[in-house]
Here is the input.
Amino acid sequence: MNTHNTTGPFDEADAPVSRPLPTSDAPRRRRTPRLGRALVLSCAALGAAVAGCNGLFGGGDDDGQTNGGDDTGSLDSGCADNVAFFEANLWDPIMSSKCTVCHTESGLAKGTRMVFDTSGTEEALQANFEAVRDMAAIQVNGESALLLRPSGRHPEGHAGGALIPFQGEDYVVFEKFVNRVNLGVGCEEQPTACEPDRVSGRRVLRRMSRVEFDRTVADLLGVDSTGYILPTDANVEGFDNNADALLYAGTDVQLMRDAAEDIAARVIEAPGSLIPCAVETGDDACATAFFESFGRRAFRRPLTDQDRARYMELHRSVEADEGFAMGVQSMIAAALQSPYFLYRPELGAVAQDGTYQLLPHEIASQLSYMIWSSMPDDELLGKVESGELATPAVISAEVDRMMQDPRAEAGVLRFFRTWLQLNAKPSKDMTAYPEYTEAVRQAIERETAAFVRHLIREGSGSLHEMYTASYSYVNEELASFYGLEVPGGAADQDGMTRVDLTGSNRMGLLTLGSVLSTHAHAAESSPVHRGKFVREQLLCQPLPPPPAGLDVKPPQPDPTKSTRERFFEHSSNEACGSCHSLIDGIGFGFEHFDGVGRYRDTDDGHPVDASGDIVGAPSASGPFDGTGELAQKLAQSPDAQACFTLQWLRFGFGAMDQADLSCMAEQITGQLGPEELTVAGVIKAIARSPRFTRRLAEAAADPGSSTDPGGGTGPSGTDNDPPPTSSSFDIQETVDSVWDGGGCKSVVVTHQGDAKALWEVTLHTEGTPTDVWNAVTEAGSAGVKFSGVSYNAELDPGESASFGFCWRE
Amino acid sequence: MALLFFDEFESSAPLASLGTASAKPACMNRISRRRFVAGLGAGLLAAPFLGRISQLRADGGTARNLVVFFSPNGTHHHLWRPTGSGSSFSLPAGSILEPLAAHRSDLILCDGIDFKGVDNHEPGMVNMLTGGGNAGSASRGQSLDWYVAQELGGRPVNLGIYTSPWGTNSQTRMSYSAAGQFAPVIDEPRTAYNQIFDGFTGASEPTGTGAGEVDPKMKRRQSILRVTNGEMEALRAGAPAREQAKLDAHIDGLQQIAPGAGAGAGPVAASCNTAPAPPPSFNPTDEDAVPDIAIAQMDLVAAALACGRTRVATVQFSHTVSPLHLRWLGLSGQDHHSLSHASTGEDVDRFRIAERWFAEQFAYLLGKLKSTAGSGGGTLLDETLVVWAKELGDAPLHRCESVPFVLAGGGAFTPGRYVNFGGAPHQQLLVSICQAMGLGNSTFGDASKGTGPLDGLA
Here is the structure.
């Protein structure tokens, strides 16, 4: 239960704007920083006046009418716990990281009406709440500016881009806030409390990503499928396994069919095939036996009688035309195109409390794809069939077992390559870097693999070791490329030998050749890329793109200056500096390493200055010199530790719901002791989390109708009856354009009544409506009747909807 | 299924989303039923009317095919703009468009067209062909290519060159098959060929198998498809609405590979007696292969149109914020994105050289269409409207004002002109293109930004 209900639901309507918070609210102030929390900008040094920025970031919205609450001076409507809701649902998980790069006193958006105080005090929270509430009250074309601006749908745009995707998870939270403060609607929903054992996450079907498909086919059939041209995976913030974004559409399906047919043929042709009899003498019993073992592994679950009947029928019908072998081949081809193979269900079965309990085989696949990027093995499937795989203890033990399996090395490496953005091959200018040969590039790839393997095998697997390890892996060629002595030890399976880095200026993950060469330009280093990499990937603080209207020209070559000097000058103007101080201050710390990852004392003849400064990352802020000190800072930073967990959560769940995942990341990281703060420890904690075995029902997980008070409590009656239509609508028509034989008109409908209603207007049009947007029509004797569509049909009192149409005479 | 499919995406993200093509669940309450009706309404309302117009216009000598050609990262207007105006313009020596000189009389160079209320890379990419539409728009949130193809009763062929090293997201895609849903793009020519010409036997023989003999492979495929369809429906029945939408996209794809679904989109030109020879296979993420892949893809577009496999195609060169290094031009030091943002120094000239290469590719496409016979007696270019689109105007400033468009062919507009449209919304250009294709829609995308056709284009 929350503790904020000591006051009545509407008592704050009369409260002064700057009322003190109820005393019961005091404990909820967190003392530990929430992940991704405020980038406290130290851009003040750049001067108070950012001339020119106000032109870019004009106040806007001034011509919109406000539509908030009452007229008595309090703009606040309804809900008693609006501030708590703001803090827990908007500020901590979303706005404190996504909005504070620009919307601060020294940020680029300082000239707008939303300027946040990032000091973290009670007063700051209250002031930030009020600024956001005021923005919510501004109506533009019938929608709240708080919804239009950050989703990039405002008529004047949003200089920071579409940071809150329209109707995405964060957007739904913003919508709830707007309804609370403007209308007093939705008060019954408690602020999201970040507490242990909270179930979160939706029930999903997860399409296998490409690498998962390849590894699954290899484990299932022993066939290498990496050479096929298959559908491209959606890329969501670098992740290739996002549950919502991955699907097969249109021509994708044909690619999957062609690959499935080809793989099936290769299985049948291969010597020592999986068929438990000679194909010349194959019969029904043999086909049945084959499917019994193959089907269970292909579908990653116990087979049903319907499965058996369906596949045997297919087998028999093909066998009749083309013989036994082709019958079996068809079963394989069909299974490889089956949704039971291509999608991993995380659907579960409804439990007594209304949540969904995931089924054992669903949990098994979650484990195997998180750790191995492939299907469960026989042992895991056995635990599914025996029903053992249900308790956190068994799941934990299974994680331990699976981490010992060689497949975990490839699986964990995939996470590292995704997280560190190493999947694309760096393109280098061979004139600038003739020594960066293909052999060196491949050795650099193997260095990362060997480093990760060692970390989780022989090493402690700890985050500290990951950042500060004094070893790496080289072969002879790479050692000479890096300028290291060739080590004497035994080489691993890839020909890489462990090298002691003590005294070499290299250390841990930050100086892996792959990280340094990927986050660099083709012909030079890049303080910007490297700073952005640390900020976004290692600290989980996303940055907006450079706003339109700034000349973003990259630094030009100048032999009289070092890279650092050129980059510093390029962003030293005030408009660029307010963001680049967050980026370049970190990136300059990497200047001892060139664009292909080699250590250097001089940069084109200029002595290297690798002093750096982190600003706006509470637990990591401050000056440092070089990557060694940066690594020490990151290793000890709770922000960086929680970020590592958050990245694993995104990877493991294939999700990006910031509010829930950052809450989980904080919980999990906070609960792990220093000795558990390891790769395996984080994975195990995720596997023990409630979300791993339970999911929310749809309505609670993502209410589609957030304007609906729900539960029959609203003024519109029960869920089954639509609200009444009403004739009390004000109509404003504007002719947008007219041409010979036609024209277009837009209409704003404003609800004048005093209860929620569905709008409907009848207009006499000058011809047949040919295009209608945001409305549906019905012709009648009195004219054409227009009514709303899903998202604008229902209007609250005072609310407006816009629609339009064109006509032809 | 199609209507249900449409409904599922009816409330999905408009295109400004950051990377995810998310569909919102249709909740099982009153809103959901209204949403369903609305989806039906919007679709049915427009369809019969448009169908009629389409038939009328098809006889009126307007464009039969549409090709959208894309190259990324905006432009430098001073290097792009011709001199002069109207029909008396010239392409200065060394300028970006100079490689198009041989086609001067076929071109309409469009200046002064803005993406209203939109700036920057990703929003520009999203808005370029959708006009910022959503499921409630007359254009259903689809991109121009998908909307036109679907109104004409088919689907576009979406071919790419180096579009996928970053995977699929709203920076790397320009084609949307539905609101918020990225259409697959094929970067590998041999794979594209197999898809386009699957089951095609040439002009000499009607498509589809003859009566009597049944190909066992086809029969087998049909049996497997029956199994897959049953499994899809069974899985769909127990899934939440949002996941059902995912499966519906898959089911739609299964319908496309069903026997008989591969029939062509129109008459086959005399130039296509038999299926063309397949192109070689390429590594689609090899920068050095880009020039060869580009030629192969453009040849495939011409062949697909000539053979009546589609009436709408796209050729997408990389994507906004392109990481492509045009190494074959000696531009291996900076990627195209970095070059595009230079406003001083040698990189400006490198960008000019890169842009001229894209102009050469566009010239190649026009030449290919001109040298291929169409189905109506003239050349393929005579009956094909070709549009070179970009997602940004001024590259260093990240602005979507004066986004340069080049039109050619198709016969719908008076060619041989350089026109400044004085800040017209690009939604009007999209409407004009639809109307040139015989469609009757008067808006495209976000109608609040602009309606009706582009004044001065026809």
Notes: The longest strand of chain B covers residues 417-425.
